[in-house]
Amino acid sequence: MGVPFAVFFDDTIVVQNYAKNGRSTRTFKEEGLWDLIETQLRPGDVVFIQFGHNDESEKKVDRYTTPAEYKANLTQMITVTRAKGADPILLSPIVRRHFKEDGTLKQTHPYAELVREVAAETGVTFIDAERITKTYFEGLGDRDSALRFMHIEPNLHPNYPNGIRDNTHTNALGAREVAQLMLRALKEMDHPLVAHLRPVDPKHLKEHY
Predict the structure, then answer these.
(1) How far apart are CA 209 and CA 206, in angstroms?
(2) Helix crossing, 112-122 with 67-83: angle to 10°?
(3) Which CATH number is 35's domain given?
(4) 41-86: pLDDT as tens digits
(5) What's the pTM?
(6) Is residue 209 part of a domain?
(7) Domain of 169, in residue numbers
(8) Who has greater pLDDT, 163 or 205?
């Protein structure tokens, strides 16, 4: 989401994406990534905080974070951001693409509810990305939603000679659409960032026949 999100805004907004694959709130802090953000924070900055996929993976002991630790880490990030005069925005993790027979997606994020609890306890600006993306991908259905995830047949991509069927990570199309959904959520809450959207190119306003 972070890469396509950056192109939505005008030159007054500088987007810095510190996200790294496979990090939980615990490992993000242990590796010094949060310290890097904290030292650079200035009043008026906006910090998007979104974790969960890796925190909740009990089998991955190198990154697993207990529910209590997870909530404490999120709360600390929010507290530090506010103390720096910056504006935290908390997001739940986006949905995984695992359909049930009735056409709805399975609930695979036990930590999503913990994010909602932190949002309620801290009063932070909150975007429920899990629910938003669940509705969106269910609307697309099994076939069309697959086009937004890392589904590659064998011998089509040099990085995946044997192919891949990944229902957790989106591809470029999926990432852009998720970013657009998050932007719409910001518009609906009338967040100040919306005032800094990139100007509309007049040629896109013309009618096409």
Answers:
(1) 10
(2) 40
(3) 3.40.50.1110
(4) 999 999 999 999 999 988 899 999 999 999 999 999 999 999 999 9
(5) 0.90
(6) no
(7) 2-204
(8) 163
